[in-house]
Amino acid sequence: MDAYFSALIGLAGVAIGSLTSFATAWLTQHSQLKEMRREAQFAKREKLFSDFITEATRLYGDALSHQKDDVSDLVLLYALVAQMRLVASRPVVNTAEKAMDEIIQTYLAPNLSLHEIQNLARSGAMNFLYDFGEACRTELATDSSRSSRT
């Protein structure tokens, strides 16, 4: 009877050890996958924000010297804002929409001379992406600190 009991205890120990090892490996892999997903989402958002800044700057430069009633050039910018609505916070989306409105207003305004553009730049009036950049920086910093705590 003692031999059976010892064997049963030994098997139980092996089963518990195996189960513990499996659970540890599964939890480790699960947390690594979760972190990889978080990093991929972070990089995707960062690229989206960067693409918006690039496109908005290009369009703003074009808007300073061209008046347009055609909205086809704004399609990519609008698509970027729509993508932000899926993954970004409300402050980021709001500031992106404000930047888009500024570009549209600039297209509707009369063309500016190089001298007028220089005066705008010196006065800081051309810094329409500042609030957007700050909102993005805040969101990315918040997400970065959140992921470092987990």
SSE topology sketch:
Elements lengths: L1 H64 L9 H13 L2 H19 L5 H10 L6 H20 L1
Helix pairs in contact: 1-2, 1-3, 1-5, 2-3, 3-5
Oligomer: single chain
Q: Which secondary-structure class do the elements indicate?
A: mainly alpha
Mean pLDDT: 88
Our estimate of the beta-strand percent is under 5%
What is the helix tally? Answer: 5
Q: What is the H/E order?
A: HHHHH
> Rg, please?
27 Å
Largest sheet: none
Count the strands? 0
Q: Can you walk me through this structure?
A:
This protein has 150 residues and is mostly helical. It has one domain (42-149). 84% of the residues lie in helices and 0% in strands. The protein has helices spanning 2-65, 75-87, 90-108, 114-123, 130-149. α1 runs parallel beside α3 and α2 (75-87) packs antiparallel against α3. The longest helix has 64 residues, at 2-65. The chain is rod-shaped and about 100 Å long. The mean pLDDT is 88.
Features:
single chain; 150 residues; mainly alpha
Structure, briefly:
The chain has 150 residues and is mostly helical. The protein has five helices and no strands.
